[in-house]
Amino acid sequence: MSGHFNLDSSWFPYPPSKEARLLPPIVLAYIGDAIYEVAVRQYLISLPNLRPNHLHRTATGLVSAKAQSTILAFLEPSLTEEEKDTVRKGRNAKSGSVPKNADVLEYRHATAFECLIGYLYYTGQQERIRELAHSGIEYMLNRSE
């Protein structure tokens, strides 16, 4: 199941230069960040309140390092061993940048979450991305009510 890029499950015809398991965790996090951002935006646009300011504020709250760190903690018990291994690699990766609005631990957990999403994307596990993103978004939105 894991390892090979599936052109049919990708949005664009640009396979990664290496198998997903060989890509650096920071690279997986780079694409994972974008994929999760689209999931959040698409989720918010499915709701009735489409005011741009509300969309932006809500999206920002869901994609922040703090939110991603919280989501990862919530999802971790339901992750497979392969997913947990990917998270571990992402958490231990040296990003080379200093977090702006998060403490270092939150930032590392957020990177781990993004790394997981990127890995799932490049291994063609779209349904799993949908499942994890939906669970995480719903969890965060229900916490804040």
What does this structure look like?
- The protein has 145 residues and is mostly helical.
- It has a single domain (22-143), classed as Ribonuclease III domain (Ribonuclease iii, N-terminal Endonuclease Domain, Chain A).
- Helix content is 64%, strand content 0%.
- The protein is built from 6 helices and no strands.
- It has helices spanning 25-45, 52-63, 65-75, 81-92, 104-122, 126-143.
- The chain is globular and about 40 Å long.
- The termini are far apart.
- The model has no long low-confidence stretch (mean pLDDT 90).
Give a short summary of the structure.
The protein has helices spanning 25-45, 52-63, 65-75, 81-92, 104-122, 126-143. The protein has 145 residues and is mainly alpha-helical. α1 packs antiparallel against α2 and α1 (25-45) crosses α5 (104-122).
CATH architecture heading: Orthogonal Bundle
What is the number of independent domains?
Answer: 1
User: Which CATH top level class fits?
Assistant: Mainly Alpha
- Tally of extended strands? 0
Distance separating the two termini: 38 Å
- Mean pLDDT, nearest integer? 90
Q: Strand fraction band?
A: under 5%
CATH domain topology: Ribonuclease iii, N-terminal Endonuclease Domain, Chain A
Ranges where pLDDT stays below 50 over 5 or more residues in a row are none
User: CATH H level: which superfamily?
Assistant: Ribonuclease III domain
Dominant shape: globular
Give a topology summary.
Blueprint: H1 25-45, H2 52-63, H3 65-75, H4 81-92, H5 104-122, H6 126-143
Helix pairs in contact: 1-2, 1-5, 1-6, 3-5, 3-6, 4-5
